[in-house]
Fold:
Amino acid sequence: MRRQRRLVWAAAGMVMASLCLAALTGLYDSGIGVGWRNGFVAWRLAACCLGAVGVIVLGLAYHRLARTVASIARQLSCDLALPTDLRAVERAAESIQDRLQEGRRVIGELEVELKDLRLRSQLSDRQKQHTEAIIYSLRDAVVVVDESDRLLMANTAAAQLLDFDPEVARYQPLGRSLGPQCKDFVQLIQRSRQSATEATRREMVFVKPDGPHTFDTIVSCVQEQDKVSGVVAVLHDITREKEVAQMKNDFVSHVSHELKTPLASITAYSEMLADGEADDEQTRKEFYQVIQSQAQRLNRLIEDILNISRIESGLIKVRKEPVSLTILIEQQMQMIKGFAEEKGITVSGRNPIVYDQVLADKDMISQVIVNLLSNAVKYTPSGGSVRIETDVNEVDALARVTVTDTGVGIPADEIDHVFDKFYRVGANNKQAKGTGLGLNLVRQIVEKVHNGRVFVTSEVGVGSTFGFELPLATAEMAGATR
Amino acid sequence: MTGKKVLIADDEIHIIHVVAIKLRNNGYDVVAANNGAEAYELACREKPDIVVTDYQMPFVTGIELIEKLRKNDETKHIPAVLLTARSFAITQEIQESLGIEECLSKPFSPKELLKTIEDILYQRAVAIRV
Structure:
């Protein structure tokens, strides 16, 4: 290439030189250089010839340069495999550009979708955690198994009730993880799954450390695309509800009996009077007295029920005033003595002359004393004794009343319940009639109305001591002043 | 039915009293007990023609009394009438299995009780005659 460039430059120089020479000869011809005419003619010819040769050489050099450039271009085109058609290249480039843009758009959409999915996944995880937290915090036992009865989940209540470790038992067949005491429960789950029933409900008994408990067991099948994909069992302890229901039934039964008994006397005696079966005035008077006393008995029973209800609902009117427990006890002892003597029971008291005034509703505390005394007489066999005593604890500013009998006593496992509403000591049920309201009324009046305390100690076959403590009036009034 | 002996068992003294007056006024002999255990002893000793007993009594209930009477050869034939404030507690099965002739709900009418006793004793008398 360099040599060719030199050649071109040389040819161009020759052309330029011949042109200059021709120009000078022309100037001479015009008369400016007359003396040099002959000599310059020859130079003029030589310059023209030289110019012609230069043009030829220039042409050859151009031709050669063109060939060389074409050759280089061909070489380049072969070496780089460039598309020969530039428009096709442009179209291809546009197509690639379009595809790139489309790709970027799709990637953008996928990124949004991915973000959305991540959010949904986080939300789902959080909901799962919440659901599990709720299930684990439930007091009801919850067990979840898959379509092959393998344990998927069990909360703490279930683990404690069915006595197994949920982590060890996870993904294991339920029947293998639970003990033989749960055989019925496992069978219930299996049968529910096999029959694909939506919900099965059954009462089942499980033995806990404190004794047998009844559970309302609900087993539900989880359906997915018409197939059972798992089973959820929820066990709700209804022992207390059953006890309450039983107590209510017993209460209704007792109350109806207690109401009907005086009513039966009233009905029978009034019919006898109406039929003229009482011949003489004395008999008629006796009949009227029976009717009157039975009507009063009926009224007392209804009052007891209503009083408990009023105290519980806070609707009872309380008239507190300073009253002497000794005086109240003396009055109530006189009332109960007739009933006690009928049974051959002696009632005595030791009530020292001390300042034992309490701020109390006189009628209510009288009711407490008479209930404790009549209870003691009821459950003491003939020939026994009942003793009522008062005492004052000056240190704690409390007045204390105790009623001690030589009665049948209360078994240790029942003593905590004797003040419960409707509760009757099973072993003594046949000993005497009752509604299970008397001692409950005592507790309600002492503890709820007078801020006192009731207590009981007992030994079967030896006797019982029931009692209550009330704040002394001085202490209550001092407290109110402060 | 004059001279027939009726045993009344009830822990309510007023009920015993009124039933006794009604029956005595109609010519019956009456023996009474205020609990089931005492009533059983009286039944064994006095051999009454009929027993009228309350259902709920201390120590031995009316049902337990009738069961004991049915187990004793000397007393198993004695017809029994049950007075109860809990009529729902006495099913037909219990009544039939214990041979309780009649169940009367409290409050009851002394006239109705008298009629019941008369009917039962009459049917017994007819049956024996046949």
